[in-house]
Amino acid sequence: MDKINLSVTIAVITMFISLFLSFFLVTVKTEHKLSNRLFAFFLILNAIDISVNLGYFFDIPLNARVFISSIFFLQLPAFYLYVLSVCYADFKLKPKHLIHVSTFLIANLILLPRFYTVSLASKISFLKKSSSMLEIQFNHVLVHIQIILYLIAAFMILRKAKKIYLENYAGASMESLNWLFQFTVALSTFYFIALLKNIFKFTEYPDISESLKIGLFLFELIIIFWYLYKALNNPGLFRNIDSRLKLVADIVSEDKNSAQLIDSEKEYNEDLLKLKSYMMEKRPFLNPSLTIQDVSKDLKIPVRDLSVLINHKLEQHFYDFVNTYRIENAMDILRDVTKSKVTVLEILYEVGFNSKSSFNTAFKKHTGNTPTSYRKSL
Fold it and tell me: Fewest 10 Å CB contacts: which of 64, 94, 191, 282?
């Protein structure tokens, strides 16, 4: 009884927080309205799914209860679309995205003949023998296949978006992608635990399943609070990239196939000297939101050619290329005895970073030391 009370209490709290956060995401003024609405939809679906566990408190018809349970089939598609909207600035919902409701429709359609359309007595009999019913077994397998495929798809989108970002941007959106990756890992862990719960549910250890169920509610609550904390403390965190941008590897491959790749050493050297001179004289790296498009516009070099020059010829991501100049500038400041009172935080903002963690990571990658230890070693 205590476990049931604890489970219900945590479920109610999680539902309330999910609905509160979804209301906040829908009403808050932001330029990322679609992303917010998609995540709000994900949270609402999550709250509806949790409500099934409170079914014995309310007189909910069996048809409605089973239908509510099938809402789970919409959760990961909603999350996947959310990932797309965060990663790509020009993402829009289109009719083709209706394909993502197919598993939800299939799961309900196969229940029509022997559950939804039969008498109450037949419904009760069906649920009593649910573990041996072909429809339930099929849906059980289908939902786990869906979980695996959507999580893999989400990780693939994040991997590609990160590569494109590194090749074209030098701002703070990397933190957004890193955080979204962490969030997806947390969500994957959640669904893995849910899988274990379902396995134990049909064994001779149902108590373990019930304990895992309570743990899932707690874990879910922590994940939601984590998102809420990030959203409130980093309102500008979720910036995205242009989906029309291509990976340099794909550009090089296309050019090789079409015999358009220019291997002129003279032209390469000229563009490289022009780029390095521009970086030293104009110091564009001081702009924390610098993109390869900005550099392309100033140098009058096509984005495609500039991207190949930096990412392919120099074998260095644009992100790392720009950060090298930022770190060199930071090192100059740290070596300057007249600026010994300037804090590391002030320095990182001065040289073009807008995040302490990204500055420390880049500095250590470039020098092997943290900014503080580097200053002390001088």
Answer: 94
